Structures are given as C-alpha cells and as structure tokens.
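Task: complex structure prediction.
Instruction: return structure tokens for all chains below.
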Amino acid sequence: MAAPHGQQGWRPIAERRQPPAAGWPPDDNNGSGNNDDDNGRSSSEAAGASGSRTKRAQVKNACVNCQRACKKCDSGRPCQRCVKYNLQDTCVDSKRKPRKKGVKRGPYKKRKKNDDGSSVAIPILQSDPGLDESDAGDSDADDSGSDTPLVQGHVASHARFPRLPLPLSHHPHPPVISVAPETPTTGLTAAFNSLATTSSSSMSNASATRFAPAQHYAGHVGQPGGYRAHAPAPLPFAHTPGTIRLPPIASFDQAHPRARPMPTSASSLAILTDVALSSHPSPHPTPPLTQQLPPVYPPYQAHPPHDPRSPQRPPPEDSEQLSLQLPDDARSRHTTTGESDLSTNYASSVDNDDTHDRDAAMESNIQRLSRRLRDTHLDQDSGSDVN
DNA sequence: GGATTCGGACGATCAACAAA
DNA sequence: TTGTTGATCGTCCGAATCCC
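Output:
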C-alpha cells in the first residue's frame, strides 16, 4: 500500500522526484539501464538540480506489459523492460480508448480582462452557499443538482480500472470486480435500490442519503471498455469461487473523501449482505454464497482472461456462466455511440435478449440475497429500532 | 532480493466553452 | 475563429507486500 501522508517514508511529490541518497533508482529501473527518459536524460537529471520541478517524461504509448505493471516503458519495441523480462513477443503498444464526446461541462470560469489586455479566469459563484470557492466551477460530487455525473475529476486509475489482487498466474479463476454497469431503470437496479434503502435503514440518515444510483459509477468504473487487460470488465454480482469480490469502494472513498456514492449495485448488495451477516449471524446458517452461485466471468469473454505467463488455463466448465456473457461487439457498439448522457446504460447497449437473460439471472441472485438479508434482520433485529 | 501490487501524483490530449 | 478550461485517459513513481 502506498504510505499515507504523514507516515514515515512519505515525501511530497516534488520531493520524491529528488533522488534519495542511496538505493536510487529503486524497482525495475534499478540497474536496468532504462532509467532514461525519452530526451535521453536520466531521471535524477530530470528531477532538476536547480530545485525547480521538471516535468515527468512519459512515453506516448506504453506497451501492454509495462501498462499492466504500471512501470516505465520506452518507445522502443520491444521496450527495455520487456527485453529484461523476456517479454519481447508481447511487447506491443497498448490500445487507447477513444475519448468520450458530448460530455457536458457546465459553466466555465468567467474570464476577466486585465489592464495589460491579458485575460484571467475568475470563478463563477455557485448558488449553493455550502460550496467554497474551490468548488466553484468545479464539478464535485456535491454538485448533485447538475447534469454532470457525480463522479468527476481524477480518480486513481486503479479505482477506475481495478487491478487483480493476485498475479494472474495464481488465479485458478480470474477475479472479477463487481460494479454495476446498469442504470436504475432496469429491474435489477430497481430491486437493489429498494433493498439498499431497506438495508441501510439501520444506518444514519446521513449515510443513507448518500446512496447514489448506479449511473454515478457508470461513466467510470462501470463503463464498458475502460478496463485494463488484466482487470476484467465487471458483471454485476460476479464473484470468484471461494470469495465474493467487493467493488473498489475503498479506493473510491480515498479518491473522493467528500463524495461517497455507495454504488447501488449488486456488489453493494454483497457488501450489505456481508455486513449484515457478519454483524447479525443467522441462527439458520446457509451455505456459502459461492456454493450457491455459479462463477461468472466478465463480459466480452467466453473464457477467463488469458495470462501469457500461465498458458494452461482450463476453460470454464460450467456452461451456464457463458449464458451471461455479452456479445463481442457490445463494447464497440457502446463506445461508438457518442452518447452524451452518462445515464446511457450499459444494458441498453447490448441486445435486449442478452440483457434480459442477464437481468433475469442477476435478479434471481438479488432476490435470493434480499431474502437472506431480510430474514437475518428479522431474526436478529426483532424489537430493535431499525429506523 | 526480486517480483508484484496498488494508491495516487502527474502528464497529455482534446472537446466544450467563452471571448473576440 | 481562436484561445482557454477542465474532463478524461494514460503513465509510472515508490511504498508495501508477496514469494521464491
């Protein structure tokens, strides 16, 4: 984990660019000779002896291996790092997803002319007195009244594209991040919304009102096409055998401490269920969820993601899970629509039949969990005030 | 000790916006 | 039409952790 601010070892970013006294550079670049940026300068040089911070050089397009490892790449193919790890065969440019179009941006800061003719931006005052100036013109999660999505601004790439908790080579099945890519208009989300409201009743009102509909994630974590090769795109309520995967809420909360949109999704149901069950152990134990539900692989894949490092991966044995796959072209169809409305939902971008099949399966799971959750509450909370 | 994970800072790009 | 702004997407640093 990254050391949080204030912990030993943390340095300001600008300071981090300064080479430590010894052991520099660490990690992959250590002694590999590829510590030079594209301008031929070493990183320590680039850090700037003058004290003024210099830009961090980055390649236009990292190769897929470096991208996956979040490590420095170079413009050569194969790149130095791939050569070092004997990955020349797979050292190819990563694909960039096209930028979204039609995203509404709200009013800009008004520009005011200086005496010298130059213009300077001045912030637009917001009608909400609770917003300080730093919020003005800034799409924050608190600007819930705007037509901009709740989740805006920079979100750590790992929050947007969660990475695998273990090396792929250690996974008998690919882990799946569970984030709902559907909108509240679907039966699935509607069902979950009601459950979320119900199950959050024991929370404080403040917490409960922070529940946000699923589309607040839809433009980011739940958006098809936005997943790294090693971070499979999600299906609602997907899980791996042996464990239910939680959505990257912790990451999201760290990135947006003021905006905590609880994802109203099947994954949140999993969280709520886990919380409820852990705090209110049922007197009627049920089998583990993972024994009740078949493994679900991410959309666009008929098989688990292939890891070049572990060539032998058995195909999924349960054919039922394949019925939950999305058509191969769902992704491209979605990303080429150019829809400006982020509520354009994932489900609507795929065939209705597929959506219905998927929703039906998902709703079945939701309903099962809903019953469990409610039963648990009824068993344990009878007589207590859950309002 | 090397490999991997992962939070998050930082950079590049470009469409939306505002002013000329 | 042109310059500015800010959202989006990508790179990769570096600490923590894993694993041989």
